[in-house]
Amino acid sequence: MKFKVPATSANLGLGFDCMGLALELYDYFEIEKAERWELLGFYGSISIDENLFVTAYRKASEYKGYKEDPLKVILEDDIPISRGLGSSAALIVGGIYAFNIKHDNVLSRGEMLQIATEIEGHPDNVAPAIYGGLCVVKDDHLLRIDVDERWNFGIWIIDEKVSTSEARKVVPFEYSRDDVINNVSCVVLSIDALKNFNTDNISLIMEDRIHEPFRKKLIPGFEKRKEYALSIGAKAFIISGSGSTCLSISDKSLDVQLKDVVYKEVKVNKEGVINV
Ligand code: HSE
To answer: How far apart are CA 97 and CA 26, in angstroms?
Structure first.
């Protein structure tokens, strides 16, 4: 059995820890029955017990009260690791989905989201990885929105990594009333812009005051690249997740000519995790 899990861009500027978008870039998992866990193609030398795919598979087994039955898993990963594109969420969703297809889909997508969020700590990557599209989550309330297909999402990958835990430390716990009003209004207007191809309002997605002002210092060359992206036609340029990758949003294809950036342009993924 083979399935794919999409990359995801969390926060989308304004929706810190609650909003995320699925993209047409994937990790592919092939699974088969095995006597003991066998993981091929996984990055690094992490033990089976620490592997996020296995952790998630086990958590799903425990949730249903099933005895763990190990797998051989072959991973082909196109999602860059630790770059703010949901590589950890893809492993978590992969593990839970593998459990589910192996056990006649006993889990609903809502249950998959609940288990994945418990592991990840926030739902903004795992929700779009499961459902596709643009997702906003508050506890067990989920809004899934179809994004207009005319939007192009540019992924700007640089060599430097940013550790999510370090990037979370620089985000404050308290904000002024003005900052909260700014984000609440802009997030609603930018969701409308993504859904209805409103090219004027999409620039509001850059008005974030919750995380970008504090995190951009951790990403070398952020301001320079943002200025460049806007000069070649991007309508918006934001940090993807906690970085270091950035995401441009444009209504046309961008001709990016920067030596220190690997640039990929993709559309929104609509289905979320799915068999292939
Ligand atoms: N919402 C998370 C953050 C996404 O920005 O820290 C990264 O996992």
So the answer is: 14
Band of residue 132 on the pLDDT scale cut at 50, 70, 90: very high
pLDDT score of 35: 94
Indicate if the pLDDT at residue 46 is higher than 90.
no
Distance CA 202, CA 215 (A): 21
First vs last Cα of the chain: how many Å apart? 8
* β-pair type (71-77, 134-138): unpaired
pLDDT band at 44 (very low <50, low <70, confident <90, very high): confident
81 neighbors 87 (Cβ within 8 angstroms): yes
With contact defined as beta carbons under 8 Å apart, do 159 and 33 qualify?
no
pLDDT reading at 51 higher than 80: yes
User: Distance between CA 247 and CA 263 in Å, rounded?
Assistant: 10
Residue 124 structure tokens: 């903004």
Q: Which amino acid is at 173?
A: F
Residue-averaged pLDDT of the chain: 96
Residues linked to residue 75 through DSSP beta bridges, in sequence order: 29
Q: Which residues line ligand 1 (CB under 6 A)?
A: 10-11, 16-17, 122, 124-125, 164, 167-168, 241-242
Give residue 45's pLDDT.
73
Nearest CA to ligand 1 atom 1: 17
Peptide bond into 244 cis (omega under 30): yes
